[in-house]
Specification:
Elements lengths: L16 H15 L10 H11 L4 H14 L13 H6 L2 H7 L6 H13 L15 H9 L6 H12 L8 H9 L9 H11 L5 H14 L18 H6 L18
Helix pairs in contact: 1-11, 2-3, 2-8, 5-6, 7-8, 9-11
Length: 257
């Protein structure tokens, strides 16, 4: 998707709570209510997020499994069964070879080792659970190559903390739906996403916006004619202006998860 020209903050009106809840409910009808209890493995989540950059979920998971196969440890030492100290101390070429299916393995292997070297011995992030969200986010963002999205993934999926990752899918869909100021920087997107998300529904709204971006609201050729949110989407209506919205087939919501 082409970069949207920024709209001045003074000219931007945030969505009402009523609109946010209506969009949440419509997404819920289409995709259900995702549930993922906190797994409490923050270091695993951090490395998984690094591996997920510029690749598919499948390739990310293959890379992580290969990392475990190469640097395995008994489960009591690590929830994932990976000896992170061994990963840190290994020649970077070994780490790169293990994660090669995840793409850009040279960059990712160097970043993973830099993160592990920045942590205490043994490498762990378990102490973040005892911190407030702001302090935990600040500590994560102080690690090499870790930004707001990665930190939010760790805090939300590991501990269920109140943070919401904004990736390219969430950014694109949210901007098109009028949830975000067009052209806003990612730092602002994260702040606004957190402000508009109903408390306790951080995971649901993140996952369902992401699903919608992957399945329907594509970057280059969004499937507006088949979109269940078309009537609520100013971007879709502008693309299809001049055509009767009632003529579009709105897909059924039952059975879609």
């Amino acid at each position: 998707m082409a970069r949207v020209p920024p709209v001045p903050r003074r000219d931007w009106t945030p969505p009402s709570r009523r609109r946010v809840l209506a969009l949440r409910d419509r997404l819920r009808l289409v995709y259900g209510r995702p549930c993922a209890p906190p797994h409490r493995r923050p270091l695993d989540e951090l490395i998984l997020t690094v591996l997920s950059q510029s690749t598919s979920d499948r390739n990310r998971d293959v890379a992580f499994l290969r990392l475990r196969a190469r640097f395995g440890a008994p489960a009591p030492r690590s929830g994932s069964g990976i000896d992170w100290t061994a990963v840190r101390e290994a020649p970077v070429e070994e780490v790169e070879a293990a994660i090669r299916p995840g793409g850009i393995s040279k960059v990712k292997s160097e970043r993973i080792q830099a993160i592990l070297r920045a942590l205490d011995e043994p490498p762990s992030l378990d102490h973040l659970e005892r911190m407030d969200v702001t302090a935990a986010r600040r500590e994560l963002c102080g690690l090499p190559g870790v930004g707001r999205k990665t930190a939010a993934c760790v805090l939300l999926f590991s501990f269920g903390m109140r943070d919401v990752p904004v990736d390219t899918h969430v950014s694109r869909v949210g901007t098109r739906l009028g949830l975000f100021r067009p052209g806003a920087p990612f730092e602002e997107l994260h702040d606004d996403m957190l402000a508009l998300t109903p408390r306790g529904q951080e995971l649901e709204l993140h996952v369902n916006l992401l699903r919608h971006g992957r399945r329907t609201c594509h970057a280059q050729r969004p499937a507006c004619e088949d979109c269940s949110l078309l009537r609520m989407c100013p971007y879709g209506r502008s693309l299809l202006r001049g055509r009767t919205l009632s003529s579009f087939r709105l897909p059924p919501t039952s059975g879609l998860r």
